[in-house]
Amino acid sequence: MELKNDLLLRTARGEQVERPPVWLMRQAGRILPQYRAIRSSLSGFKELVETPALAAEVTIQPVDELDVDAAIIFSDILVIPEAMGLPYELVEKKGPLFPKTIQNLQDVQALQSGENAAAELQYVFDALKLTKEGLNGRVPLIGFSGAPWTILSYMVEGSGSKTFSKAKKFLYTQPQAAHLLLQKITDTTIAYLKQKIKHGADLIQVFDSWAGILTPAQYRVFALPYIQQICEAIDEVPITVFAKGAWFILDDLKDVSCQTIGLDWNMNAALLRQQMGINKVFQGNLDPCQLYAPIKEIEQAALDMITNFGRKHIANLGHGVYPDTPLDGVKAFVNTVKNYSY
Ligand code: 1CP
User: Is the CB–ligand 1 distance for residue 22 below 6 Å?
Assistant: First the structure.
């Protein structure tokens, strides 16, 4: 199926484009009344993720409502631990919870991995296929996964955390088990992403949401080599690496085989280009809280962001949009980018 709007892909490939493409991390979700309506009729988040027709429907909602330049498949990074043998629950108002966690080498050895594990996720692949049909070529579809370190952190910690100190302790005290676990996650993630691409993903984003809590030395040993393996294996479509909070690793990411680097709102794109000579495409990085401001200020901030990034830019927020963000603020951001021309 030919894409009617392939601006995101042309930008990710480094081509000269007319304006930055725009989409928002977490664009499918509670910011949209259409999403809340579907969600409230279900038993929970997992039912939505695991029912392909519904997942496809909520994936397309932001394309209809916001006219963004990409859809991102509605799913979660935590489907990977579950496929490996560690089920998750999503506790209302509290977040993810793993009844069973990884404590030692034996626990890691008991997990399945690679293609066998990825095969458990047929419901995601079916959702991609239905989404592609529903989009009918309007915009590209983004597939995603968590980065191995971020996935390990949930598997060891058992829930979200401010410090992820249990997960970091695991790296310091059981490095051998940690490396085996990271390798198993990596193998599963590669098999999973390849299936996503087969079922229609046009671009892949790897979320390293907890990158910023590692030291640079830990990041180089426990995170980056596995991200590199994923980027090397995925050569069918462009790939974005978003290592949140890890400004200290951008100089290394320069040499990783990804096309695009996601930046959070603490980072300065112009400075990174000048001082580090990073030539890859950047994605980001408006502060999600900026969207609570008056409309005029949102518009100005979006223009300032575009100016700061220069070319080779995919406009986005610096992290996911917060559920209580006014829809008018979101639309002001999207429309400012869409009305811009270089
Ligand atoms: O019903 C609900 O609204 C539950 C909230 C929710 C939603 C909407 C969760 C639970 N996951 C999702 C969907 C989701 N998760 C998407 C959808 C596609 C889109 O972007 O529109 C994506 C890309 C994710 C990825 C994800 N899940 C990340 C990486 C991105 C990030 O925000 O850093 C992480 C860390 C998760 C774990 C997770 N799942 C859900 C929550 C609330 C969390 C975060 C928990 C924590 O803070 O530790």
Answer: no
> What pLDDT does residue 184 have?
98
b/e per residue 68-99 (b: at least 16 CB within 10 A): bbbbbbbbbbbbbbbbbebebbeeeeeebebe
Task: Look at residue 92 in the predicted model and tell me its pLDDT.
Answer: 86
In a domain, 235, yes or no: yes
pLDDT of residue 61: 98
The DSSP bridge pattern shows strands 95-97 and 89-91 to be antiparallel
Domain annotation covers residue 2: no
| Residue 234 domain boundaries | 7-338
List the catalytic residue out of 35, 88, 154, 226.
154
Peptide bond into 285 cis (omega under 30): yes
**pTM of whole model > 0.90?**
yes
Please count the other Cβ atoms lying within 10 Å of the Cβ belonging to residue 156: 24
Please check whether residue 1 lies inside any domain of the structure: no
Q: Look at residue 307 and tell me if it is in a domain.
A: yes
Buried b (16+ CB within 10 A) or exposed e, 212-229: bbbeeeebebbbbebbbb
Query: How many A from CA of 312 to the centre of ligand 1?
Result: 27
Quote the pLDDT of residue 145. Answer: 98
Count of domains for the chain: 1
Q: What is the CATH number of the domain that holds 115?
A: 3.20.20.210
Q: Return the bridge partners of 205, or none.
A: 144, 240
Q: Is 10 a catalytic residue?
A: no
The minimum-distance atom of ligand 1 relative to the CA of 207 is: 29
In this predicted structure, what is the pLDDT of residue 93? 86
Spans of the chain below 70 pLDDT:
none
